[in-house]
Design brief:
With about 130 residues, this protein is an all-alpha fold. The protein has one domain. It contains 2 helices and no strands. Helix 1 runs antiparallel to helix 2. The longest helix has about 100 residues. The mean pLDDT is about 85.
Length: about 130
């Protein structure tokens, strides 16, 4: 086996060293470009995702407000239905007393006045 017995010259060492430096610089530039591309890509993806999230958040707020208005209308409607039932009950009661008074042919003013009083109390309570 023959061994390398010649010592490389300074010029050869400089060429090899220059090659290694250039190769390292090229690799550094490639890694830098890849990292920059990855950063820019992630930035745009994050920005797009944030816009989507903001859009959904705005929609949720609008839906929440809309549902609150609907629930308020439902509560108001239920209260009106209760009042309507009470008024209908009082009207029917008054009509029944008037009819009973007519059928019996007596002036049962006390019962009619009692019904009138109940209707008046109900109306005063609503004012």
């Amino acid at each position: 086996m023959k061994y390398l017995t010649t010592v490389p010259t300074t010029n050869e060492v400089n060429v090899v060293w220059s090659f290694i430096q250039n190769l390292g610089a090229i690799l550094l530039v490639i890694v830098g470009i890849m990292k920059s591309w990855e950063y820019l890509h992630s930035k745009t993806a994050v920005t797009k995702m944030q816009k989507v999230i903001d859009n959904h958040e705005e929609r949720l707020i609008k839906d929440f407000n809309r549902l609150n208005k609907i629930e308020q209308k439902i509560d108001d409607t239920q209260e009106q239905i209760k009042e309507g039932k009470e008024v209908s009950r009082l009207i029917l009661y008054a009509m029944q007393e008037l009819l009973r008074s007519r059928i019996d042919n007596n002036d049962n003013k006390s019962e009619i006045e009692e019904v009138s009083q109940k209707i008046s109390e109900y109306l005063r309570s609503k004012i």
